[in-house]
Amino acid sequence: MFFDQSFQQQLRRISTILLVVYLFIYPFAIVLVALDQVPVWGTWMGGALLILQGALMGMWLTVRYHWYGAVASGLILIISWAVEHIGATTGFPFGSYSYTDVLQPQIFGVVPLAIPFAWLLIVVAAVGVAERLFHRDGRPVDDRYLHPTRVLTAASFALLLDVTIEPFAVYINRYWVWASDESGFYYGIPVSNFVAWWVTSLILSWVLLSLRRSANRKGLVPRPFMQWLPPTLYLTNLTMFVVVNLARGQVLPALIGGVIMLVLVGDWLLPRLARRLRRLAETNP
Fold first, then answer.
1. How far apart are CA 52 and CA 215, in angstroms?
2. What secondary structure letter does DSSP report for 41?
3. Who contacts 89 (Cβ-Cβ below 8 Å, separation ≥6)?
4. Among 2, 51, 118, 232, fewest CB within 10 Å belongs to which?
């Protein structure tokens, strides 16, 4: 059988290696980009880091959900590439934009390979954050039903991450540029971009959670592997965008990202503080 124990162990080991590599590169990436000290020969590393994280999320899904996770990863990659290709060549649905030559290689000379992997990273991470908010008590996520609230929340967290990404990608890393006739209230980025981001994230989140529901109905129990990984990658990326935007003078996206961080950290920390205070009160009446 393809997904036998040996293959699962290999995926786990590769996932662990990729995570270690990411955590090693991560602080250097923040410092170099924040200080505008990325060497010319190192411009490829931004795309490589996105591919690394997307691959890590794909392997994580495959370990957790076997074939269903692999298919979900493949569909997210394909659908996001198709939407981006249409967007970059026609201007719909995001608005008129084009990718620069910073991110390489580019699929059919249009969409960088790193972009579908970035979508895979963001969608899986956003779903992880949404589920963390709805399952504070630590109980396993119920995959028997496709909860609309979970899909909507995941899409919204993906959109919030894009709000911090856009000024970073356009004006700092210069991954893409908007056409001169486009204009928007937020750093010249059109509203259509954010609407399309939310709708695309909604579709991709629905694809992921639908396949997880199918896995549950087939009796597949998710493997207990790094359940904390998706929200952790969401926070590490958000932290990078906050720090770099702030260091490079883009205060508004840094503030928006900072508020999101406070909400997520507070959601994790406050219940634990409350439990600790209750225990202290019980032991010291």
1. 26
2. G
3. 110
4. 2
